[in-house]
Specification:
The structure is a homodimer of 370-residue chains. The first copy, chain A, is of the alpha/beta class and 370 residues long. Chain A is built from 15 helices and 13 strands. Chain A has helices at 4-12, 20-40, 46-53, 56-65, 124-139, 152-162, 184-193, 208-221, 235-246, 263-270, 280-287, 295-298, 310-318, 327-334, 338-351; strands at 69-71, 89-90, 93-94, 100-104, 114-117, 144-146, 167-170, 195-198, 224-227, 250-252, 275-276, 355-356, 362-363. Chain A has a 9-stranded mixed β-sheet with strand order 1-4-8-7-6-5-9-10-11, with helices on both faces. In chain A, helix 5 packs parallel to helix 6 (152-162). The longest helix of chain A is centred in the N-terminal third of the chain and has 21 residues, at 20-40. At the A-B interface, helix 5, helix 10, strand 11, helix 13 and helix 14 of A face helix 5, helix 10, strand 11, helix 13 and helix 14 of B. Chains A, B: Residues 70-283 form the Smf/DprA SLOG domain.
Amino acid sequence: MLGEREARMALAGLESLGAIGFAKALAEFGPVDLWDGFVGQAETTTWGRKAAALDLDGLRRATDACGARFLIPGDAEWPVGLSDLDRVQVAQQGGQPVGLWAIGEQLNQLDTAVAVVGARAASGYGEQVALTLAADLAAAGHVVVSGMAFGIDGAAHRGALGVGGRSVAVVACGVDEPYPSAHRQLAAALAETGSIVSELPPGLRPTRYAFLARNRIIAALSSAVVVVEAALRSGAKNTASWASALGRPLFAVPGPVTSSLSATPHRLIRDGEAILCAGAADVESVLAPLGSLPEAESRGEQRPVDRLSPGLFEIREAVLPGEEVVFSQLCARTGQPVLEALANAAELVELGWLEELADGRFRLPRRPAG
Amino acid sequence: MLGEREARMALAGLESLGAIGFAKALAEFGPVDLWDGFVGQAETTTWGRKAAALDLDGLRRATDACGARFLIPGDAEWPVGLSDLDRVQVAQQGGQPVGLWAIGEQLNQLDTAVAVVGARAASGYGEQVALTLAADLAAAGHVVVSGMAFGIDGAAHRGALGVGGRSVAVVACGVDEPYPSAHRQLAAALAETGSIVSELPPGLRPTRYAFLARNRIIAALSSAVVVVEAALRSGAKNTASWASALGRPLFAVPGPVTSSLSATPHRLIRDGEAILCAGAADVESVLAPLGSLPEAESRGEQRPVDRLSPGLFEIREAVLPGEEVVFSQLCARTGQPVLEALANAAELVELGWLEELADGRFRLPRRPAG
């Protein structure tokens, strides 16, 4: 008879991928008895046939060969959030992973981890936002969780690693099989200064079902999930469903309404399923303990320019970066009467918000005041 | 003693611009007695001094000269929504206009009018969205209300007029004084096939206070208000406050989080003050009587492509417009196993969703199926 850890590794070798029946049987019988039961059903059930065919020694060797740890519930670094998966189902899937292979750093400090996920075929805008968002979150001490896919996922990992932050990739294949292969370098960087985890044994290539099952782990590992870009049907939408089911705050980043990649974020926001996220501060303001953040400033609403009186603000906003405008343009653009516009422009120059050139034209100063 | 219409024209000549005290006095005394009262205070109050100085005959002549009608509450074309202004205040302003000058078409069918407002210094994205949105709303029978300003306002009017729809401009100056002057042609088009209205007498140039007061009329005239782009402080934000105070559904169009012009729409959406608007269908779904719209379709969520099974959809989404991809790219981008991807691609070609070229590459068909 196997011990719990070995039984769980053997069970993980069956690739149950969030099958509800499997998770229920595991909860009912426990890993040791469940494995023994499967082995006894070698002739009669699918799980039994798979169990009989499993090469547990080969699995142990493959685990050691790639330097992976096989983690089980109760281990010090087992992420506690995963147990929430035993409470909920999405699209006939559910259940805490029976075990996890991990390489790289210990899976700790995940209590404020934030998942940043989205489309593979992301836009340049989406990748830029994901990169910046992940960098800002990581710089603020959040572990950034994603799926190491093309597009948003890759940008999120790179953003976090780029500022010396921590990032965890949950993959739909073996932790030793970087997928997609173009992300081999990213995988190496994550193994070095981040972590790669999977409920699938080393050596496995990804399947579509594995991608869906993996999404539940991304959501459960994290304290919040941000969807950056996603077409109307996408894996990110599935991750969003898991976040909602698990009670993790769900955020979505808006974008141009002319982009089909913003369709899902916009739908999630419009229907109240996700909170609009225009930057890391929006996530922080929800995750941070009440009262720990200076509310307005954290949301960028108190830029110094906002403290100008309406009349001054109008004139200041009428001058665009890089242009030089004549006085009559200030009047035309703001609708302010000449005397008022003159007074406002003079005050802005005095306060350092505008520069008046020798020929009387105005432009924004090289460095804004405030 | 003047009749009601003349008393109201005289009072309108005082340019009260939403002054709360004025509105309260008008409600208490009625227009005729209020005017007589003002005239009697020629030496003692500001309103009295203005009243004593008013040239009512000149006002009548100016009204006739520009072909304007002077409308008062109770007139058949007086927009009933304006009376809501007697109930609410925003930033010390309020009150139904004492009268309105109007040129162009009758102010009818405003019960489903939609205001489309936003930044003067709008982006190309914002103007394009405003134009399309207004065109779609106008084509669906909605009168499009805006302020004839540069940027979003102008685009909204043009979008509505461009599809032969109706548009109403509420201006912060005389109806005969197109402001900004660069919008002279737009003003002529509105006078021809739309309407221009103002609570200010003909001949007046705009002031900042008039812009703010005008916003309350835009909101009250409309059944819904859409903010397309607006910096953190802007007139559109003031219009949004009026919409909220008046109980008009408020919408905001999201955009790139990297654009400061999307800051106000995003804040309104995030804080639950505005509903996310990604297109006319979002406005329609709120304004239309319950059950009168085929919900999902009206929101663009049932594009034919959405009816594909997930496996087919993944492959279809992996091919971007204009590109030709080899089969291995389909596998790499979707993560589907080769046999599954082959079967899915073949089915998509059969259904007309993909084209297979002679060299085996795939591309999107010239006209999508569905």
